[in-house]
Amino acid sequence: MFDYVHENKRVVQVILLLITLPFAFWGVNSFRQSGGDALATVEGENITQQDFDNALRQQQDELRQKTRGRIDPAVLDRPEFKLKVLDQLIDNKLLLVKARAAGLEPTDRQLTQMIAREPAFQTDGQFDRQKYEAWRVRQGMPPKMLESFLKEDQATRQITSMYMLNGHASDTAVDSLIRASEQQRMVSLVNIAPDAFLSQTKVDEAAVKKYYDENRAEFSTPERARVEYVVFSADSLLPQVTASADEIKDAYEKNKGDYTAPEQRHAAHILITVPPKSGEAGKKAAMEQADSILQQIRQEPGKFAQLAKKYSKDPGSATKGGDVGFFGRGMMAKPFEDATFSLKPGEISSVVESEFGFHIIKLIEVKGGGITPVDEVKDSIAVKIKMKKAGDKFAELSEKFDEAAYTQSDSLKPASEVVKAPIKQSGWLEKGQRGASPWTDKALQAVFSEDVLKKKRNSSAIEIAPDKRLTVRLLEFQAAGTKPFADVAEAIKKKLVLQQASELAAKQGQTMLAQLQRGEKTSLKWVAVKDPLSRMHPAAGMDLELTLHVLQADVSKLPAYVGVESPQGGYMLARVDAVKETGPIDEVKRADYSQRLRQVMGEELLKAYIAEARKHASISSKAFANGKG
């Protein structure tokens, strides 16, 4: 498999570029410190093996999704890939250390406000606690651990944003980028294929044998085995457990606090701010203006929204008549919150001072504060009860399952009968492969263990995931080896013939290109590419390297000619027939490109900041040996 990586370095480079830093905030699993030796240390803070394993698994899963499963599993297990993931974790930890030193980690109140404003946790523009709780449960972390993780992530994001949002792009640079990106080139192609040179090749048996002897690794076959196996999981026990009405009611009564909807208040306000550096005089003027507006509202309460649009300095609510929507405790500045929660619907507060200025608050509506009826939550309670019972039963049966697999190691039937799980058969499994569940690294280690292969016993029961265990037994085994010469001789000969023909085609192509560039006539039959080629819209199916050569070609004199060796063998020639420049650049387009260029420059600023921070930071990390972390 290393040959694949060696021969496809550009593929690996693209894959490494797809990995992003920092890890996504919403939906990410925890990379918090856990037990075990430190794989790396950044300014005294550890990155553990578990942190790395979690990060590696997430990146591998994301790349499988991005490539729709077409990526070679071996690439995701290479040292280059693992080192890139570890480097990201080090950078992220370093950013966190810097953010904490700068006081950028949010307080509990600020975190609550950020969560309430996150669109993923809103319904109709209002915070929906049920959505947040459902998301929190999916993360599989205790509340305090999750809150700590979110604070760390937000702190890192703040220091990242300071660089990402400050990239500079001049109008000259932006206009040059637009012209280069949108310039179109009309192209014609000629493919000098190796097929035309096959009759000129000569490959004898000695050459075939020499290739075989010098490239035996190419014809190696790994150890592989087929096994029968039993998977036992807590999920498989769910159909065997029930939740009675009495159990649901009892669980509801014991956990009523979980089903109490927090009180939320719908308010509007008028904010009068104090001009910066205006001192006590500015504060007094703002207070007097707020008092004056309050008197108008007292006389005509129905004009609250109209006065808010006219006077309020809160850009988020002024245009909506001061409406700030629903919010709960801990989501607003404390003076504002205390005043709002002291009002009755329809009431208007006196002038309230907060860190933002002076507020006049009107309470519009109150909701929540009551207990959700048991009938509305009984289904979710039943699921929790059944999961608890299944988990307890899993723990109880796991010991019996493990014992049956070990003590009656000449058959999987006893272990299967203990947990009422079927015996299944695998396809061929290769040593060192990365596959889909249940064939994790631990499972494959069991398959190729001495007990299974040599002693022909059941494997010990192993944990392949939380609440999931596996035992295997050998059906068939094939040792590692090398394919016989007779089996691969014909394929080698075809490969060498094609290789020679490709070399002859490439040589012919280079000769033709030189003639064309000297202005000499040729008998080539050009095929026009249907659509014009540009940096924004490469031609479909056109080789990437040839595309780059076409875009880099000097077009001051047309036609212009370029050529490259084809990845499929032979040689590709391209002729640039015409060039169409972009039209006048309007402000909308300039703003769009400017934003993109600023983002790129911001990313470069961040990379430079991290590189400089690394020079002065105390960082130690372990290397990977043979691809193993």
Describe this structure in words.
- With 629 residues, the protein is of the alpha+beta class.
- The protein is built from 20 helices and 20 strands.
- The chain has helices at residues 2-7, 9-18, 49-66, 79-101, 108-117, 129-139, 143-164, 171-182, 205-214, 245-254, 279-299, 304-311, 334-340, 374-407, 413-419, 441-447, 450-453, 485-517, 544-552, 587-616; strands at 38-42, 45-48, 122-123, 126-127, 184-192, 220-221, 224-233, 264-272, 323-327, 352-354, 357-367, 424-425, 429-430, 462-465, 468-478, 481-482, 527-528, 560-565, 571-580, 619-621.
- Strands 7, 12, 13, 14 and 15 form a five-stranded antiparallel beta sheet that branches. The protein has a four-stranded antiparallel beta sheet with strand order 17-5-19-18, with helices on both faces. Strands 9-8-11-10 form a four-stranded antiparallel beta sheet.
- A hairpin with a 2-residue loop joins strand 3 (122-123) and strand 4.
Give structural attributes.
alpha+beta, 5-stranded antiparallel beta sheet, 4-stranded antiparallel beta sheet, disordered N terminus, disordered C terminus
Q: Mind sketching the topology for me?
A:
Blueprint: H1 2-7, H2 9-18, E1 38-42, E2 45-48, H3 49-66, H4 79-101, H5 108-117, E3 122-123, E4 126-127, H6 129-139, H7 143-164, H8 171-182, E5 184-192, H9 205-214, E6 220-221, E7 224-233, H10 245-254, E8 264-272, H11 279-299, H12 304-311, E9 323-327, H13 334-340, E10 352-354, E11 357-367, H14 374-407, H15 413-419, E12 424-425, E13 429-430, H16 441-447, H17 450-453, E14 462-465, E15 468-478, E16 481-482, H18 485-517, E17 527-528, H19 544-552, E18 560-565, E19 571-580, H20 587-616, E20 619-621
Antiparallel strand pairs: 1-2, 1-20, 3-4, 5-17, 5-19, 6-16, 7-12, 7-13, 7-15, 8-9, 8-11, 10-11, 14-15, 18-19
Helix pairs in contact: 3-4, 4-7, 8-20, 9-18, 10-14, 14-15
